């Protein structure tokens, strides 16, 4: 709450606020003060956040300031964590200190007043909502999730066969597959790629994520005075949020009017949870708004993440050993690492595809894979892990907030500090990963030296990705089906592996040939 009033008091005297802030955030006891880049008058380190590939920029800053450093923006102090050890200390070991979310003006707008699971702050109401959705997801995962993903994998196979070896951009097909898994889970509906309902839903959700991730919008949180000025980007955000709520309401109303046709869907479980006769004490805090916002969480959290990961996987598998992608952003400082993405010299990625295919053929003897086969398919698992390492699709997770005074790596962290877990940085930490910028799936094979403990693409602790088990089953089955039946060949130039970083780390559009095996 103190954070909220701090950020939302546009009338506050700036000088006295600055003094208050300095006083409040001064290091306590004998704790050393956090390192970080010099902070400029008024704007602090705001410019650091406007970098167009923030995860890479923060990872470069970590080279200079270490695994934990601070940035200041307006009244807010952010602490960026760049290694799996410090991220685990904060998110897992001290989860109860850092399970909060920053309460902010713009987050309140996109989350229906903090009522989504992803942006809601840590309190009894949030815990009841998360528990309810978690239980519903588990129930669906145990009963029909496998079948739903298999159906989408087979549909994807059919679509790829229809392309008849033409060079195509598969991103939309991946989005449809991922989205259909979630809409089937949520309210028993799946859509065709050409469906206007599907397109409307995705254009709206993508727009909200992109707008909310833009610096035009985050500036409103750090500098409340800006809210008084006209801001067309913000007006668009408001319009899209209203459109989203209208679409979701229509789907949920539709579901309810189906007279329990889809007892299995998550919505059925959630509605039971909202039934006053069945509610536990904490569930009594929940309303239809929580059901509505949980649906938003699943759709946003579960679509672009999985679809982007599939897109990255195909892209990495297309690169040949001689293909080198150098990131040489002119705007970076001289100390910046030249990031180079290249392949393990031992084999090309086109060969990695053959290795996975051979493994699938040997182990499965012609049948399609089941999730229970995963232990017998180490090469496939190593590819999945390596793509999750190199391209964690939520590269900076979602910001956390210190609920109380605490410490990380021996540094004092005052209550209300923002914590940014830089998962991308942790996955490129040279102290943990040999050749961190190499695509080298074999590091995850026995004796390869890759550490699954240091692999944290889903975060951890109280805020661990709610869809982790759904995502893992999807990544496994969809990749296994694709690599069993197709060989992916570059169509002209190979994809640019740098990516575009917003809330989700996406690859730039590229085309590929899916050659049937
Ligand atoms: C490759 C796939 C995915 C990755 C890498 C991923 C990663 C993440 C990460 C890093 C977070 C933030 C954790 C934190 O705040 O510390 C997160 C949160 C979340 N994810 Fe995922 N995710 C994936 C797929 C999914 C799917 C399929 C769903 C839904 C079925 C989902 C639903 C959510 C939700 C609801 C949250 C918010 C959790 C909370 O704040 O308590 N995600 N995810």
TrEMBL record:
Domain of life: Eukaryota
Cofactor(s) annotated in UniProt: heme b; heme
Entry EC number(s): 1.14.14.16
Residues noted as binding heme in the record, renumbered to the chain: 465
UniProt membrane topology term: Peripheral membrane protein
Compartments where located: Endoplasmic reticulum membrane
Keyword Signal listed: yes
Protein name: Steroid 21-hydroxylase
